[in-house]
Amino acid sequence: MKKWLSLFVICLLLLAAGSAFAADKIVVRVAHTIAPDSHYNKGLEHLGQLLSEASNGQMELQIFHSAQLGSERDAIEGVSMGTLEMTLISSAPLANFTNAFLVFDLPFIIQDRQKAYEYMDGPEGKKILDSVLSKGMVALGIWENGFRMLTNSKRPVAVPEDLNGLKIRLMENPIHVGTFKTLGAYPVPMPFGELFTALQQGTVDGQENPLIIISTSKFAEVQKYLSLTGHFYAPAILLINKDFWEKKLTDEQRKIFTEAELKARKWEREYSMENEKKLVESLKAQGMEITEPDKAKFFEAVQPVYKEFEEKVGKEAIQKLIDAQK
Ligand code: EAX
């Protein structure tokens, strides 16, 4: 009897010790929608490594890729409500929550990547990021998704007219939808997690994403034509729950996080750019037919979109981003 009792006490002690240790450890769950070998995942792995090193293993990042925890919209809602700590998403679906990021959604607005990075990392970018504070989130920084390219299963797209009547999947964003309508396509907003099947079953004819996503999502299996349009630049936003950030982390841990995020952001952008260079050849080898489109014609065709959304985005916001790249 005595033996059993002491065994029981030992078990209780062990349990208590275990949970005390667990309470000390900061686990940050971060969700994204793309593949485990994507730039998002690699960048987050890098962040996780930096956090773990700088905190002697006290801070741990748990990555959930491939929309395991739902769509980007679900993830933003989760981070906003605190049911999820962190997410890395394209800025486009943030349009459901704030207008501040819309300026990035305008077609061809980003022409100079380096200058755009400076803008995004500077005081103007900070103002945009701070627009999510009132939604219970902190936007830690702007990473890169990349320049979006068009793929489809029907025909090469060299000029806007080639898009006529094609059903193109888009992110849930009014400017993206408006742009493809203006170009004569039939826009279908849909979460990324449903896209591969939709392409496979022919529910949509095409989609648009950076080359690294086209490649890591294996779209070459279901899309023949790739047109190097680069019509939108998609920034990726790293969002963390505000209560978690302010109350769960100590000052020291926040400092570690801020420093690690800045390093990981730069690393992820580099990784993204390096990969982009190699991917045209690789996608060709996977059987895609590549078209260099007449970009000037696309640029001209989308000008009405600027007028249409000028008020919603803000004239000043548009001009500032254009001027920053001069
Ligand atoms: O943010 O939905 C998309 O097409 C995005 O590029 C993707 O989820 C990564």
Please, could you describe this protein's structure?
- This protein has 326 residues and is an alpha/beta fold.
- It has one domain (17-324): Bacterial extracellular solute-binding protein, family 7 (D-Maltodextrin-Binding Protein, domain 2).
- The chain is 48% helix and 18% strand.
- It is built from 13 helices and eleven strands.
- It has helices at 2-24, 39-54, 72-81, 113-121, 123-129, 174-182, 195-201, 211-216, 242-248, 251-285, 295-301, 303-313, 315-323; strands spanning 26-31, 59-64, 86-90, 137-147, 149-152, 167-170, 186-189, 206-209, 225-227, 233-241, 289-291.
- The strands form two sheets. The chain has a six-stranded mixed sheet with strand order 7-6-8-5-9-11, sandwiched between helices. The chain has a five-stranded mixed sheet with strand order 2-1-3-10-4, with helices on both faces.
- α2 runs antiparallel to α10.
- The longest helix has 35 residues, at 251-285.
- The model is unreliable at 18-22 (pLDDT under 50).
- (2R,3R)-2,3,4-trihydroxybutanoic acid binds at residues 33-34, 72, 89-90, 145, 171, 192, 209, 213, 234.
State the end-to-end CA separation: 82 Å
CATH architecture: 3-Layer(aba) Sandwich
Bound molecules: (2R,3R)-2,3,4-trihydroxybutanoic acid
The proportion of strand residues reads: 15-25%
Question: What's the helical proportion of residues?
Answer: 40-55%
Name the helix and strand elements from N-terminus to C-terminus, one letter apiece: HEHEHEHHEEEHEHEHEEHHEHHH
